[in-house]
Amino acid sequence: MSRRLTRSTGALVTIITAVFLATPMTGRAQKPAGKAPAKAWTPPRTPWGDPDISGMFTNKDEQGVPFERPAEFAGRQTITDEEFAARAARSQQQLATDNAEFDIATADTRNAGAVGSATSPPPHWLDRPKPSRRTSMVVDPPDGRIPPQTPEGQKRAAERAAARAQASSGRGPADSYADLSLYVRCITRGLPGSMMPAIYGNSYQIVQGPGWVGIRYEMIHEIRVIPLDARPHVGSPIRSYMGDPRGHWDGNSLVVETTNFRDETAYRGANPQTVRLIERFTPVAPDKVEWSVTVDDPTTWARPWTFAMNLTKDETQPVFEYACHEGNYAMKNILTGARAEEKTGRPVTGGGGEGER
Fold this sequence. Notes:
Layout: E1 6-7, H1 11-20, E2 55-58, H2 81-99, E3 138-140, H3 151-167, E4 203-209, E5 212-217, E6 223-227, E7 244-250, E8 253-259, E9 276-285, E10 288-296, E11 305-313, E12 320-321, H4 329-344
Antiparallel strand pairs: 1-12, 2-4, 2-11, 3-11, 4-5, 5-6, 7-8, 8-9, 9-10, 10-11
């Protein structure tokens, strides 16, 4: 996947700004005077009285946190000092690898083309995280693990797998652009995928206006427009890749409930007819907004479950122009490579895709 690293300006930003009447953050960092006790931080407000969570954000430092808690960390929400030191050492080693001069004579090309390999994009593309002490993104259930699927959810997963197998029978993994994922095709990463940390493109812009909130995602350059006026969701037949969001304020937290997903983007194999994603954007510090997502689908999982991470406000991490379609050399190269392998008589393997958190 490729993009042009030019700052996003022009009509898109102009429209967003005009629609949402975005205003600058008016936070007041409060410090204790002398030995006086520190005052509790109070989130700033917009001119119309809503909590102000607007700005440029990144969650690049969350990408090193496991989504589910590994067995080695069972019963712990954080790692030990020794484990943290090991993570920090691995991070430094990765940075050294990223910045090493490329030498075709000595480069490890066994994983050629993979992001992060010797032949991956140049280092300025990559968002390498700082080491974290957290053991999982999943915070509920307390064990940090996704609850088991219901019998109905297991049956639906098996039926989907069988349908995919039948549809691909007699086909290669890259016979057509339609065989590739929505992500590789520059269509969508879905929800919550569009805000999940990846190896690059981890910048987001939140803008606000009376009765509205807008979120702009760098990767795939998607935009969500979230009304706050208590209107009902659209009818069930109307479905979209990113779903139909409805928001409201609960104290200082923006709560967004999203339904009406298409089957292709129903999160982790959820039932698009019944799944609800409930996001909470809660300002916890002048430069931090906690983003949590509760996945509620009683037809797929035994109970609702929640993952969470911090969005860090950082104006040095603006949303760049992703230009996914314009720079999607991966699509051409995957299909061209598959045709070349066919001419050799070897079976075509792999078709391009992405993992799911």
